[in-house]
Design brief:
The chain contains eight helices and 20 strands. It is of the alpha+beta class.
């Protein structure tokens, strides 16, 4: 039996200026009990605004927000403190003059579901602090804690009233890499342990795929795709999702009897894409993920290795095609291919997809160019 939706957005729109496109444009989605949803997208895509609309810090211009079966921004407006929603801010928003225990208890004192006694507040505060593993630090002040510990306090404060939904705005962006990796798994485990549902905002693709049960990819205020992480990565519904989530390569392709012909070889798409817009005129780009590419050194190969990065478990190669286009490949560590070598590109898995041609590709350089690849592409 499908769990009931505890959150539903119906065609939510938010504008800050009539002269600009909406910050959030007709977004609809639903969240089930116990589910973790990741809002993923680049800066300015509207994901934080959407989180603020759910929390009640912003009012939509159109559409409605439902918590359970109750509308909270239709005819009856419910302020943030009455929405049974816990919030973890990007900068933690801890009170510097309060101890860990006092910061956590603050969320209970403002609880709208009744007036807990002092004993109940003390018990719930202790339980929340224990849940995030800070039992021995309850008398410390925020400045006496590390960034990861401060984030735990913020999470404990949000969890203490046991809200229906936890909202997290870029919760790990201020942390060191190792702390971030550890804490994001711990946050997932804690939400699972208490049975809370969560919505978190991130611009980190790996973080969204690792932490969320479903990923909602946003672009220019709109919801491009919402699905399980494996589906978003494996079957991106738009070119933007393919570029942003998988950081894939795109090659102009022409349909032929043998498959889709590109300047570095002929490929067969697993799905019939001859009905793609522009496909009959050859106006299609073929998408190949970096990890699906295989390279073979070949003196007459169609691409040249312009750079190689050692990433620990793999090498990342920057390649240039005869037309000057930059391509990227990730191969397991083994015998490295020297910079300057010519290579033949193959895709053994045939894991390729097709999208309508997009003009003005920033990764296309003049033929014969040997300059550096675009800096953003090397991230």
């Amino acid at each position: 039996m499908t769990p009931p939706d505890i959150l539903r957005l119906d065609n939510i729109t938010k504008r800050y200026s009539s002269q600009l496109p909406p910050a959030v444009d007709r977004v609809s989605l639903a969240l089930q009990q116990g589910e973790i949803l990741g809002l993923l997208g680049p800066s300015g895509c509207g994901k934080t605004t959407l989180l603020r609309l759910i929390a009640g810090f912003e009012q939509p211009d159109d559409g409605d927000v439902f918590l359970g079966s109750q509308s909270v921004c239709g005819t009856t407006w419910l302020p943030p403190e009455r929405r049974d929603v816990g919030i973890v801010f990007q900068d933690y928003a801890l009170f510097p003059h309060l101890t860990v225990a006092q910061n956590v208890a603050f969320g209970l004192q403002g609880n709208s579901r009744g007036g807990p006694t002092a004993t109940e507040i003390e018990q719930q505060t202790a339980a929340a602090i224990s849940l995030v593993g800070l039992e021995g630090l309850k008398h410390r002040f925020p400045h006496e804690l590390s960034g990861g510990q401060q984030q735990r306090v913020a999470l404990a404060r949000a969890l203490a009233p046991r809200p229906t939904i936890i909202l997290l705005d870029e919760p790990f962006s201020n942390l060191d890499v190792q702390v971030r990796l550890y804490l994001r798994q711990e946050v997932r485990d804690i939400l699972r342990q208490v049975g809370a549902s969560g919505v978190f905002v991130t611009h980190d693709q790996e973080e969204a795929l690792a932490l969320a049960d479903r990923v909602a990819v946003m672009h220019q205020g709109r919801l491009e795709q919402i699905d399980a992480p494996e589906a978003v990565y494996g079957q991106p519904s738009s070119r933007f999702v393919a570029e942003f989530v998988t950081q894939a390569n795109f090659l102009p392709a022409q349909h032929s009897a043998g498959g889709w012909l590109t300047e570095v070889g002929c490929f067969k798409a697993k799905t019939d894409a001859t009905d793609q817009p522009g496909s009959q005129l050859g106006q299609v780009d073929l998408m190949v993920r970096q990890e699906d590419i295989a390279l073979v050194e070949d003196a007459v190969g169609g691409a040249v290795v312009r750079d190689r990065q050692f990433l620990g478990r793999e090498y990342k190669y920057c390649l240039q095609t005869p037309a000057g286009k930059w391509l990227y490949a990730r191969l397991p560590v083994g015998n490295p291919i020297a910079i300057g070598s010519r290579v033949t590109i193959t895709v053994p898995s045939q894991q390729v997809r097709l999208y309508p041609r997009q003009s003005g590709d920033a990764r296309l350089e003049p033929v014969g160019s040997t300059g550096s690849p675009p800096a953003t592409a090397m991230l």
